[in-house]
Design a protein that fits this description.
Layout lengths: L8 H27 L8 H9 L1 E5 L2 E9 L7 E5 L10 H7 L5 E5 L17 H14 L4 E7 L1 H14 L6 E8 L12 H7 L3 H6 L4 H9 L10 H12 L3 H8 L2 H7 L1 H10 L4 E5 L8 H11 L5 E3 L8 H4 L1 H15 L3
Parallel strand pairs: 3-4, 3-5, 5-6, 6-7, 7-8
Antiparallel strand pairs: 1-2, 2-4
Length: 340
Amino acid sequence: MLRFGFRDPAIAGIGYQHIAWIALGVVTAAIVYFLNIPLPPLSSTLLNWQKKGTVFKYKEFDIFYIVEEGIQSDGSTLVLIHGFPTSSHDWSKILGRMKSQFSRIIMLDMLGYGFSDKPLDHHYLITEQADIHEALLTSLSISRAHVMSHDYGDTVALELLHRFNNRESKFQLESMCMLNGGVFPETNSLFGGQKLLLTPVLGFILSHFTSYRNFKWSISRVFGVETQPTSDEMMDFYAIIQRKNGNVVKSRLIKYLNQRAENKDRWVGALVQTKIPVHMIYGPSDPVNSRYAFVDQYKKVVPSPSITVLEAAIGHYPHWEDPTAVFESYKSFLQSIKKP
């Protein structure tokens, strides 16, 4: 008597095909489910932030930006460059203080972030994000600016610094201040979720499975234990990321980590070679950039290193966790570089 089962190659092939189709169906159904979860509504805080800004065209893309008038009359400009995976709203807690130091403050949501366009099939490049900043400053007739950046924004700022060092910049970079970011690939630690997002195909699939619960768990890990965002603030982070399929493009945006490693000589080299004033403000309770490895590397690599290490409780988002300390450190830096 013939016996058929999965040990028979022909029957096994049919069986495995059925399993594969079932698995594909389950994944597809799950993606459809997650894509159809209603977007979280924008809070009054985010709506007011959106009302502050406007949009300019970069190629075919809409880029959201804000120009905030300061109280100085010297024509000075500060450009604020946000991090991954959030938006320009990250600077809201420090913005009021910064107005006392500048004539105007400019910030935008980079391509793929916040209220800006988030094309699904785009190859996101740090160099293009720098192009967008230069295009905005040119459109606003701004020829000189100071830059403060955070996280992903640090790498964009380093690209701008490289261009300035090599006389390729479209504006005069007067100073640069960075906040916690993976400036040195060798001191930057990745979470398991980040590694999965970087995985071809799998990262794209996993990016569709975003819920508030897993987002909250993930982002809370980079804040200090004592300086966690409130529930309302956490929901604001989530809501602004989710706009325009922002969760889906994260698997493309996060490839900046590969770009950072590939361009280490270009971007770390810019920091080593520059003659303009540069300062680092660092929250030490940062699992992304471990305290001792990062600080030691910064002091080792950067000539005449200028760095402020904040209180031990402050994590990866120092401008959100302790905006007063960040402002005071930055104000002291500005005073130290002013010409007599």
